[in-house]
Amino acid sequence: MITPTSIENLKNNLDIVDVVSQFIELKKNGANFKACCPFHGEKTPSFVVSPQKQIFHCFGCGIGGDAIKFVMEYEKLSYPQTLEKLSGLYNIPLEYDNEKQKQDLTIIKKLNHYYQKLLFSNENVKKYLKTRGVSMTSIEKFEIGYAPKSSQTLEYLKSNLFNLGDAKEFGLIDSGENGLYARFIDRITFPIYSINSNLVGFGGRTISGHNAKYINSPQTKIFNKSKLLYGYHLAKQDIYKQKQIIITEGYLDVVMLHQAGFTTTVATLGTALTKEHIPILARIEAKIILAYDGDNAGKTAAYKASLLLGEFSGGVVIFKDGLDPADMVKENKIEDLNNMFRSPISFINYVIEYIIDQYDLVDPQQKQKALNETNNYLKTLNPLLQEEYASYIARVLNVKEQYVQVQKFDNSRVSNLSLSNFDLGELSIIRSAISDDTLYKMVTQDLHSEMFEVHKKEFELLLENKDHEHLRGLLVDERLKILSQEELKQQILYLGVPFFTKKLQELMHDQSLNFKKKTRAIRTLQDKLKQLKK
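Structure (tokenized):
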């Protein structure tokens, strides 16, 4: 935990005009500064920054706050991540309640520097990377290194007086029948950073013919490969600028695509895209391009990922003829890559085509199975997309459209989410609750359906079942964001305090209750208000 004193020190040393200017262009306007709001599309500037009050406010979308809130919203970071980013940008140190964890991370950083030095003194490793087309600039940018024999790594840790228990806890070493050994032995190393740019582990590629071509750091308290994307810390700025993210399967794909100018590229860590990646992708609101190999494993991985991404913008690019993105960069097929990334197969199209390709449509029974499976998939989509893709499935299967089953929705139960009847704040709360169990508990414990002026029905469905099919579309609605715990607390206060204050005032003037019941009810409401404010 970052100490309150150091947070206050950071705030006192930040100038909001300077901070916001790091991300958008501001123009002087009287005592204030103005710009087009970066949080919603507009042509006439309504975004105002006040150097006197040290706040920003948009009169178009209503968003506002201090310098920390701006960076949180702009970079889509959590509160601690934002503090650490600003601390690094302005060289203002933060203090932690648990200094041990901070020291632990230093072990990983120092070992990474050691691996980098070894690479530059190892001609075989440099020769291998050169044959793969990796430039020295890319080696430095991605901090690529070389892990030596186990004994050398252990000797380095011991001679620098690092705690071997900490090294083991963070997956750098382990113990076996013959004692301690290094996790990465005779491998090219690729340091892996967390979403908020902390070095948390390594990926390693063998250069000695080991059966496991690639390995990652093991699961630790700071390393969870299902929540990490390799290269994200380098790609993040361009992802937000270009509104695009390219997801590949391997480290070298990321390195080589960045080298060719595709600087929004990241990779999953030896695993398919998972549900745990979805909050990251939903937060960045970008076009998602899956760039996967054309072998069976790559096609299957693309299919599983597309099931998760069905209603996101973007699509799938499959590489054929045994090539992968790294190979194409090496062969200087940059324009071919540009064309492929410009016209991916949409996720829904890819899923439908993948399902149908598994069956022999000449055989009537096989065609029926293909129809059944595509029907089942269609029912997972929102009503509009079901209608759109029903005719497509019928055309591909060469069947009458009446055989393609579109699920009928009871629209009377759910509010119309058109712009004329749409509350961004209310729906963001509901979407956050659907996406995270902790947030769900906060929302259902502290909020009441009567607090929702526009989306009361959606909230009631949330209470009934957070996985309700009628709420599924909220998960991929690009207008909505998943709130952090701090943001959600503020929203709960925003809705809860006025609601319970009004209830309390009504109760005070209610003459129908006897004194005992009225006193008890007033105390209950007062306690609720205290609990919310606390």
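The two ends are 19 Å apart (CA to CA). Residues 4-90 form a domain with the DNA Primase; Chain A fold (CATH 3.90.580.10).
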